[in-house]
Write a structure and sequence with these properties.
By secondary structure, the protein is an alpha+beta fold. The protein is built from 14 helices and 27 strands.
Length: 489
């Protein structure tokens, strides 16, 4: 139960690991590096998926599905791409098993002519497919999204944040001009930022990755960066302008309106179940999850306080009109009449699971025509009249959603620091953490030096950054704007 949860101040990493398991979100699998997402955790992911899917469709995208297996030769066609993923690929070499002396073994005679890669991402197989779909400008743009699982072989794992297999969506679009593709890349970044801030209640910085941090095979990578409670950054989504790199690798050309053959322009973009980790680490406290109402599987739980089955039935009957009214407002409500658990246990359980609003009601409340409501975000309790309770609860949920964002925004503001010297940067990085706005000379050598010496990276070059003449905090060379540094997950 929640009282056994390690505090964030004692051990933030342990707190996170315990909370994911104790709140029934996920568990480690017997398959090393993989996780099992449990129903409550998957319900949150489904809410995320539904919102994002609607946003993708509103912007003209359609869902499709491509194979899990990718011929090895496809990956070899785009040099930078394979170099970026080579060390993370799982490879299928045989297609059959057999029994030998009572043991199951790989049949050595069933070796594949060409090895298959379990997809780490789908650019290669999708662009091989697009070659057959695209002949002229009339076939463009292609705006496809795929909800899928991917494998990036990872043994040092943490539930939701880094696993060998994870769930995600990956958009893959094809365009007639560079400008259209760039606009698509920017548009989808804004979709992610809107989702993060208005649904997850997580403020983000929209920015551009440095050359060394770009997606493998991309011309430009845009990202949203969020700050966790422990002062570390988390990349919450990326959108890539791929230029004509994959079109050239797979010879995907189109005839323009003028009748000229040219290579197609591409983008890809994605978010994953890593968002679950961001949600947990941004908002939760030492008592458990704190879920923003827009993504909570259960918005309201009603806990009856009663003696005997007769009182329980009476309370349940009395609550049915409120429950129906809440349901009509799109608010999910659970009446917990489980007589095997005490009300105190239930209070702690729903607190641990982050249910935004808890209602307690007993015979005395019914006589008085009131309910006791408790907010999960602040812990505040209040007595509310039964009459008009649904509208009150609806307003309360809106307040909780906004308050969680405001708290996260305040935390980020308090942990965003301008620094001008390398010594100041190193000192505050250890003592305070968070985002650091500092001048950088634009070289990969300086970027690598900072990463090696401090384990901090350039999270992004903010898109809304103002031009500000300055000097690189390490080399003293001229710089025209500050970039965002942080240690990250």
């Amino acid at each position: 139960m929640a009282e056994k949860l390690t505090s964030r101040a004692t051990d933030y990493s342990k707190w996170y690991n315990e909370l994911v398991v104790m709140a029934d979100l996920a568990q480690h699998s017997e398959v090393k590096g993989c996780m099992i997402i449990k129903p409550y955790g998957y319900a949150i992911w489904e809410k995320m998926k539904d919102v994002l899917d609607a946003k993708f469709k509103e912007t003209g995208h359609q869902n499709a599905y491509f194979p899990l297996f990718i011929p090895k030769s496809y990956l070899s066609k785009e040099a930078a791409h394979i170099e970026g993923f080579a060390k993370e690929c799982a490879v299928v070499t045989h297609y059959r098993l057999k029994t030998e002396n009572g043991q199951v073994v790989v049949d050595p005679d069933a070796k594949l002519e060409e090895e298959l890669i379990v997809r780490p991402t789908s650019e290669t197989i999708i662009w091989n497919t697009y070659k057959g779909w695209i002949q002229s400008y009339r076939d463009l743009p292609i705006l496809i999204n795929q909800w899928a699982n991917v494998v990036r072989w990872e043994m040092r794992t943490r539930l939701f944040l880094r696993t060998a297999e994870f769930l995600w969506q990956e958009g893959h679009t094809a365009h007639a001009t560079a400008q259209e593709a760039i606009e698509e890349t920017e548009k989808m970044l804004h979709v992610y930022a809107d989702f993060s801030e208005n649904f997850m209640a997580i403020p983000v910085i929209q920015g551009r990755k440095t050359e060394s941090e770009r997606f493998a095979g991309a011309v430009d990578t845009l990202c949203i960066e969020a700050l966790m409670q422990d002062g570390k950054a988390l990349q919450a989504g990326t959108s890539h302008f791929l230029g004509q790199n994959f079109a050239k690798a797979f010879d995907v050309k189109f005839a323009s309106k003028e009748g000229v053959n040219d290579y197609v322009w591409a983008t890809s973009w994605g978010v994953s179940t890593r968002l679950m980790g961001a949600l947990i680490m941004t908002h939760s406290d030492d008592k458990g999850l704190r879920l923003p109402p827009k993504l909570a599987p259960i918005h309201v739980v009603i806990v009856p306080i009663y003696k005997g089955e007769e009182q329980l039935a009476e309370i349940h009957e009395k609550m049915k009109p409120l429950m129906a009214e809440l349901k009509g407002m799109g608010i999910t409500v659970k009446f917990d009449g489980d007589d095997t658990k005490r009300s105190g246990w239930k209070f702690a359980e729903y607190e641990l699971k982050g249910v935004p609003v808890r209602i307690a009601v007993g015979p005395k409340d019914m006589e008085a025509g009131t309910l006791e409501a408790a907010r999960r975000d602040t812990g505040e309790k209040m007595s509310i009249p039964m009459e008009g309770a649904a509208a009150y609860i609806q307003n309360l949920l809106n307040q909780i959603q906004q308050n969680l964002f405001d708290e996260a925004f305040k935390h980020r503001a308090e942990h965003t620091t301008k620094v001008d010297t390398y010594e100041e940067f190193k000192s505050l990085l250890d003592s305070k953490g968070g985002f650091f706005l500092a001048h950088w000379d634009g070289t990969s050598e300086t970027e690598e030096k900072i990463k090696t010496e401090t384990k901090a990276t350039i999270r992004c070059i903010p898109l809304d950054n103002e031009i500000e003449e300055g000097q690189c905090m390490v080399t003293g060379k001229p710089s025209k704007q500050r970039v965002v540094f942080a240690r990250a997950y």
